[in-house]
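Morning!

As promised:
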Amino acid sequence: MAVAFDSENPDLPPAGPPAGRAELLVRIFGPLLLLGSIVGGWEFLVRINEIPPYILPGPGLVVESLLDNWHSLYPSLLVTLRITFLALAVAVVGGVGLAILFSLSRWVELSLFPLAVVLQVTPVVAIAPLILIYVDNITLALLICAWIVAFFPILSNTSMGLASADHNLRDLFELYGASRWQQLLHLRLPSALPYFLGGLRIAGGLALIGAIVAEFAAGTGGTGSGLAFRILEAGWRLEIPRMFAALLLISFAGILIFLAFTALQHLLLRRWHASAASRER
Amino acid sequence: MAHEPPPGITVTVPRLVLGDTLLFADLSCRLPAGRWTCLLGPSGVGKTTFLRLIAGLVEGGEAIADDGRPLTGRIALMAQQDLLLPWLDVLGNTLLGYRLRGSPDGRLPELERRARRLLSRLGLGHRLTARPAELSGGMRQRVALARTLMEERPVVLMDEPFSALDAISRHRLQEVAAGLLDRHTVLLVTHSPLEALRLGHRILVMGGQPASLREIPVPPGSPPRQPGDPALLALEAELLEELAASDARTEEAWASTVP
């Protein structure tokens, strides 16, 4: 049987044009332009109306204050980020672990999932003071608060991802004699990866918010030295530019976390998942 | 390719209901050992269910091998969808079965060589590291065929394996598959009378509700037969009529179940 195919095939999909340059320009310069005009307008309004800095500082003053106070704000940023990432790490381990457990036992899922929902719908601001009372170690208390908000998106997304593995593929695995463990490792976990990464992107931002909220709740205790504490401290002293400077840092941290996870998602999925692949034309 | 002689299979289905539909009642059928059986019939008549039943994925009937040993682990299945894992490349998908079974040490290089040879024979030699998302539908179907062939199971069940291919590729792949699966017990579900007449040692038409099977004469000569053969073309016309009749039977049965 000497049937062979020629090297090239007519049904090869085209390689796709390079990402539209016009779109790239819009993606980068659109937001920059908008941001620039907002900041410019802000500065303009502050100057034209001669608003005193203790009511609304102009953006120039905020940046100046950020640089002046870098020695106190930077360590605070590190404290807040440490809590954020620790909470996120625990949320990932706990969320993925629990999701796997759910996928293996319907019984566990039905009993535990409502509890997870209760945890999710309770506002962290409301329970943070309680946690701070019951947990002596402030860092641990902050960690718990940030974990509570970061945990749920990871659990719920991963859980959905594990359940969404194609039924026909499960049949195939069964026919190939794959064990439950192999099915999990080679089919369900990879299928869940896009969902998990989506959850991680949400959880990253939420962990930062959770950490800040918890610091606010703990703030008056005075032991915390995260960015929220700096905001409170500057507020008591009516150093409004410094409040804005700390706020700016928090925003930047949030944006960086989001961008980092978006990049991770793209890196892991671009070869095979529709959400990250460049579209065929 | 198979190391053990392929078994013949006897399928009996006392009663099988899917949803509200009585698909099969007292259906029985034999797949002769080492031969290709082609199964034709209108959509929705139960061909895929019949195939899944033999694979052990649907309850309600029995498929017994002539040699008395269980069929588990002796069946390779190629479904209608290509069922490739999107995160594995072409080579990884082709070797999926061995990956899951954990092939014995030292065999992997040899298996990989064989997979490469097979893939280049199927026209995919230059796309070994591509992911399924980067391939066309026809190419994905060829990868699925390669994976099925790599399994080296004596029994192969195929559900419209060539439906997404263009006419030329289909013609070539039919010959490749017929060559590589010679002396296997094969059940091929297809919508194409020509395909069945080219490849089948035996042709069955499924129709009605509950479905029954009707055997159709095959052209002389051994598969793969040439599509231009006058005897084959004459039978194709006959088979088309038979299919139209079984389609009507099935429709009638459906109509009679609607109040």
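Chain A has one domain: 69-269.

Hope this helps with the figure draft.
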